[in-house]
Amino acid sequence: MSGIEDTTSDQQAAAPPTTPPRRISVVGLGVMGSPIARHLAQAGHTLTLYNRSPDKIAAWREKNPELQVITARSPGQAAVGADVVITCVGNDDDLADVVLGPQGLLRSMRPGALFIDHTTASARIARQIAVEARDREVHCVDAPMTGAQPGAEAGTLTLMCGGKPAAVEEARPVMSAYARRIVHVGKPGTGQVTKMINQICMTGVLAGLSEALRLAQAEHLDLDRVLEAISGGAAQSWQMDNHWTSMARDEFDFGLTVDLMRKDLGLALDEGRGLGLSLPITALIDQFYADLQAMGAGRQDITALVRRLPRRGVQKG
After folding, report:
1. Both ends of the chain: CA-CA distance in Å?
2. pLDDT tens-digit profile of 85-130?
3. What span, in angstroms and rounded, lies between the C-alpha atoms of 125 and 119?
4. Could you give the residue numbers annotated as active site?
5. Are 316 and 250 a contacting pair, CB within 8 Å?
6. Which CATH architecture has domain 5-187?
């Protein structure tokens, strides 16, 4: 056995573990943090919210008028008295500020409380936070996610968790309010490394899919028939099933942005360099995304990768 724990059965997905109402604070109400907070409030937990931009809290309240929450003026204030604190912020610097900074939440968390981080960040800062949390007797889980905004809204995210087994098991019932699959990968930091692996695999598929689509267009093939023919065999992928058509239509105003993916691939490349490991395909695709940023597509979905490749012999649309 590998030691990996996975909640994947239909029965588990349909009936997630229940947990008594707890005092939970959510720090970061972005695209992912906002629906996570909603699921937790709907599950009956007492919820405290903090966001660096107060307008996002106002927007959350307006969108969820039936849900009662408390608001905090700082991460540290949000953490006072909390049983669980969850973060979902932008990058390493943001995470360091809200967790380890002068008004950081670790300074206020009580011994025995649980900290869950859903930020996609470096393994280095995940390990650093785990050490600081251990010294303060706070249980700690790094749990980056996949499933994008639709998964967060539907409560069907996949979480890849690093941390001590007891911490992950304590976090599991809480996270089940918004996640369908919860996998304990290993020690602190391994959740973040697994997310890097996920991003490498995903963008590699998109690079091949982009070239395949352009070839089909240049040959004036019926794209629906091509999809039907190849999606039932070895070429099939989630990206193909969900994005072949939108890529063909030049629809990119949704989802995980090019800017964020460059951040994620940079984390993977840094991790590889630290191990003396070459990741040449990842480095090449990272440069492809840099090209898209130069084209002004940084806020478009990562499937805009196809835009780098000029159309040959086809009319747009």
Report:
1. 51
2. 999 999 999 999 999 999 999 999 999 999 999 999 999 999 999 9
3. 11
4. 195
5. yes
6. 3-Layer(aba) Sandwich (3.40)
